[in-house]
Design brief:
Length: 488
């Protein structure tokens, strides 16, 4: 594991003529950006990679040691490098293939913990092979503030230590879910009965097998929670409550389907585009081809499909279509689906469609008031635990992150028009409250969701990190090239 190499308590200052770059966040995006910058820098460069967790590479998604947490993308498509598609599968080969059955084709699903170790290894390899003009440091610190200086930016951490840099790239990644809107919101703060962060492994592990649980949300986050509980031998009732009652679809090996977008002029509305996809699914089905092939064939066209929508149509997508898109696009490994299916058949897991209205503490547990979908009536359910697995928080205005709040407050950044991330230019420049690009301040990864929509999974993020590094180090042809999810 790569640990912090910087224990200094004094400000970092670079040597003369050295370009200093601060990368805030060392999940997949920040780590891969650092790797590309180390590889491509040809002039004196000092890279500072910050992460508050003290871990460099795994980020939120791949820090888990739970063997039942599998990747939701096949190993063959999880290489860190767009130009070396088999890099991850080859890395797995000597260590894990026989144990995990992934095989040389990489068609199976590795564990997320394995992937986290891979990313740490990729970062360590880059550090060891850094050219002499590059200094690369990892810093275990939470950046809480950013201040402009005459020549760049000052990053300030929670202890007040300042780091002076020329450029800053925010790779803050994903944020845990926000609490649901309840008639009595403070009830959700009780740590004795509510787990608000579904990735808090210690909290989930503390649930006894005989304790009943209400899980809010039915997406991949819920799936993580359920498989962890199942692995712990949990046997009390599990209730999943979700507004739409949609479970993630299951991965299946499918033949590729030829791209069909762009063959005719694209309709303007999201509903007409949905009709186009549905028609293609029917055409595929008539030839015995599964809908998954059609959905997957959209991948290279997604940036264009998103960017060519008007703001009103994007809003319509987010309001009406997003839950359906998510379950079809972000699927679960068959092994995981089997666990879930078994629990459903055995009625140890129940899926309820509706929403949570209120929570009340009672002697026998926590009483949840639920409103089933399409009714005006409510029912109650008494459980030992409530877990918030409603998925990643996306409204940037509601996120209680110290750095994001401080940047929004002082106008250094502004929410994008949909408030699903920050406003950025096509080249990744952050835009301030006056609509101006801030020199030397950038964002990559899920924070740029509004520009690209699908900029969440590794296959898209690896392209964005590689493109940004090429532009940044001047190794790309033009600085006007967009920094997006498509292959560079
Ligand atoms: C549970 C889960 C499972 C997933 N599984 C898959 C999968 O199987 N396949 C796939 O392709 N994609 C998957 N994804 C999508 C995932 O978003 C990407 O694959 C990728 O990991 C995102 O990386 P990131 O670096 O952008 O964000 P993150 O992984 O969220 O990393 C951001 C990092 O920034 C740090 N940070 C944030 N703010 C600060 C600050 N102020 N100061 C210092 N450090 C800070 C955090 O500590 C964190 O380490 C998954 C996502 C989740 C949440």
């Amino acid at each position: 594991m790569i640990e912090s190499s910087s224990s200094r308590q004094t400000p970092v200052s670079g040597s003369l003529g050295e370009r200093r770059i601060g990368i805030v966040g060392a999940g997949f995006t920040g780590a891969l950006l650092a790797v590309h910058l180390v590889r491509q820098a040809r002039t004196p460069t000092h890279i500072l990679l910050f992460d508050r967790s003290g871990r460099f590479g795994p980020g939120l998604a791949y820090q888990t040691d739970d063997q039942s947490h599998l990747l939701n993308v096949r190993a063959a498509n999880m290489s860190a490098f767009p130009d070396q598609p088999d890099h991850f599968v080859r890395w797995l080969d000597p260590l894990d293939v026989s144990a995990s059955g992934i095989g040389a084709s990489g068609q199976a699903f590795a564990t997320r913990g394995q992937y986290g170790r891979y990313l740490q290894d990729v970062l360590e390899t880059a550090r060891q092979s850094a050219p002499s003009c590059v200094r690369f440091e990892t810093v275990a610190a939470e950046i809480t503030r950013l201040e402009p200086t005459a020549t760049g930016h000052q990053l300030v951490d929670g202890d007040g230590t300042q780091y002076s840099v020329d450029d800053v790239v925010l790779c803050l990644g994903n944020f845990p879910p926000r609490p649901p809107a309840l008639t009595n919101p403070t009830a959700f703060d009780d740590p004795g009965s509510v787990i608000n962060n579904p990735w808090d492994t210690a909290a989930i592990q503390a649930i006894r097998p005989d304790q009943s649980v209400l899980i809010l949300g039915s997406g991949l986050t819920m799936v993580d929670v359920v498989v962890t509980l199942a692995r712990q031998g949990h046997h009390a009732p599990l209730t999943v409550l979700s507004r739409h009652g949609l479970l993630p679809a299951i991965h299946r090996a499918c033949p590729p389907w030829p791209g069909f977008v762009g063959k005719t002029a694209l309709p303007e509305t999201i509903s007409a585009r949905l009709a186009l996809v549905r028609a293609e699914v029917r055409r595929a089905a008539a030839q015995g081809v599964d809908w998954r092939s059609v959905v997957d064939s959209l991948r290279p066209y997604l940036p264009d499909l998103w960017r060519s929508l008007s703001l009103a149509e994007k809003r319509r997508f987010l309001r009406h279509l997003r839950p359906y898109w998510d379950v079809h696009r972000h699927r679960m490994a068959p092994e995981i689906a089997e666990i879930l299916g078994r629990l459903l058949v055995q009625e140890r897991l129940t899926l309820t469609v509706g929403r949570l209205v209120e929570l009340q503490q009672a002697q026998e547990g926590v009483v949840a008031t639920l409103r089933p979908r399409g009714t005006d009536t409510t029912t109650t359910l008494t459980v030992d635990w409530v877990i918030n697995a409603t998925g990643l928080a996306s409204d940037i205005r509601q996120i209680p992150d110290v750095l994001v709040r401080s940047l929004l407050r002082d106008g250094t950044v502004r929410p994008d028009p949909l408030a699903i991330g920050l406003d950025v230019s096509d080249e990744g420049h952050l835009i301030d409250q006056n609509g101006q690009k801030i020199p030397g301040l950038y964002a990559l990864g899920p924070l740029t969701r509004s520009s690209w929509w699908e900029i969440t999974a590794v296959p898209e993020l690896r392209n964005q990190a590689a493109q940004f590094a090429r532009l940044f180090t001047g190794s790309a042809h033009t600085r006007k090239e967009p920094v997006g999810p498509l292959k560079p």
